[in-house]
Each structure stands twice: as structure tokens, then as C-alpha cells.
Amino acid sequence: QVQLVESGGGLVKPGGSLRLSCAASGFTFSDYYMSWIRQAPGKGLEWVSYISGGSTVYYADSVKGRFTISRDNAKNSLSLQINSLRPEDTAVYYCARGQNIADYWGQGTLVTVSS
Amino acid sequence: EIVLTQSPATLSVSPGERATLSCRASQSVSSTLAWYQQKPGQAPRLLIHGASTRAIGVPARFSGSGSGTEFTLTISSLQSEDFAVYYCQHYNNWPLTFGGGTKVEIK
After folding, report:
1. Rounded to a whole number, what is the distance in Å from the CA of A108 to chain B's nearest CA?
2. What is the dihedral of CA B76, B77, B81, B83, to 10 degrees?
3. Dihedrals φ, ψ of A31, to 5°?
4. With an 8 Å Cβ cutoff, is A42 touching chain B?
5. How far apart are the first and last CA of chain A?
6. Residue B3: which residues within 8 A CB-CB, separation 6 or more?
7. Which of B34, B95, B98 sits opposite A60 (nearest CB)?
8. Does residue B10 surpass a pLDDT of 90?
9. Residue B30 has what DSSP assignment?
10. How confident is the model at residue B71 (pLDDT cuts 50, 70, 90)?
């Protein structure tokens, strides 16, 4: 069955960096677009970024220039490098399969930006 | 950016009753609308895409309808496991956006 497992979240100071990872299994990873979607505590959902099976990427305006999505198809792995973190980036970050419809989601990893 | 407005914010329903959730788009999204269910402490789960197509494994009591700017998610007979928050999301163009959610609670 499809499984997506995120890791790498934590507490970081404003201006800091983190690298989130997502290990995928149960499907042919290279055939699918993958995305990161975030949810601030008690708030709604925001589609942050996606990457095609190759190298086509998209970023929401709120993270453009600070976040970098990448993937390693040989390792069935998705990553999100997040730099210049701001308090408003505090959220659970979900790895999801798909470019515009997220049909499978990981359990999420919490990123907290606070001094 | 397309704004999705969900109503009501909270819906109180008794088990076995019908629940009707609404999602309105600020401009037409044709049929490029999905619905997700989220339970506390869990990731969202895809229920409906293409406004009316149930995702794999979704029970038939969930149905979606609508096109353009007005959409509805109907749960025909609420089961205990259906009490959750429901989000709509469009994928007509970027940025993709989600509605603010409707919480379905036990009456």
C-alpha cells in the first residue's frame, strides 16, 4: 500500500533552516508528481510546492525564494529545504502524492519557528 | 487567487441523519474541485475529485455535486466515523487553494 513518511521537523529560530524529508513506498515513485502541503496550528491548508517526476517545480508566493523542493527517484525520496524561516512558517508539513489532487498524504512533520 | 468559502463553519448532525456541506468559489472552477476529510491528529484524506468522483475506497454515502462556483458534499447517513472537518479545494489554476473547512459534529 502507498506509504509516505515525513521526518526532519523541529524547533528552529527565525532566520534558521531545516530540511524535511519524505520516504515513499508502495508505488512507482518516479511516475508521480509529489507535493508539500502545510497546515498552521488550528488553521487551514496551504499548498506549498510540487515537483514533477523530472524537474518541473512550483512554489507558492509565500515561500518562493526560501523553499527548495527536490526528489531522488532512485531512493524514493522527496525533500523540502526551508531557509530564512519566519514565525508564520510554523505548521505541520505534509508530503502528498499528486500535483493538483493529493490522493495520499503522510502523517506530517511539525515545524515550529520561535525564538 | 480563487477564494473558496465553505458553509456552515460548524454543522451539528445526529448519527444516521443527512449532512449537506457547501463550497462556493469566487470565480468559476468548472469541475476542478476536490473534497477532503480530516480527523483530529490525522492527515486529510481525499474523498471526492472532479466535483463528483469518489476516490478509491470512499463509501457510497459520500457524494459530491456542482460545477462552476457552487458545490455540495452530501453525506447521506452519518456514521460515527464521519464526524470530522471537511475541506474543499480547487485545482483550476495556480495557486491551488482550500476552503476554510466545515466541522461536522455530533448533535
Report:
1. 7
2. 70
3. -80, -10
4. no
5. 40
6. B25, B26, B97
7. B95
8. yes
9. T
10. very high
| Per-residue model confidence as pLDDT tens digits over A23-49 | 999 999 999 999 999 999 988 899 999
Half-sphere exposure at residue B36, Cβ-oriented, CA atoms within 13 angstroms = 24
User: Is the pLDDT reported for residue B12 higher than 90?
Assistant: yes
d(CA B45, CA B1): 24
Residue B51 Rama label (left phi>0; alpha psi -120 to 50; beta): left
* pLDDT for the residue A55: 78
pLDDT at A42: 86
A58 contact residues in B (CB cutoff 8 A): 94
Instruction: State how beta strands A10-12 and A109-113 pair.
Output: parallel
Cell of B103: 466541522
* Pairing label, strands A91-97, A104-105: antiparallel
Q: Are A34 and A101 in contact (CB under 8 A)?
A: no
Q: Which residues of B touch A60 (CB under 8 A)?
A: 95
The CA distance from B5 to B99, in Å, is: 5
Name chain A contacts of B99, Cβ cutoff 8 Å: 44
- Furthest C-alpha separation in chain A: 41
Looking at the DSSP bridge assignments, the partners of residue A3 are: A25
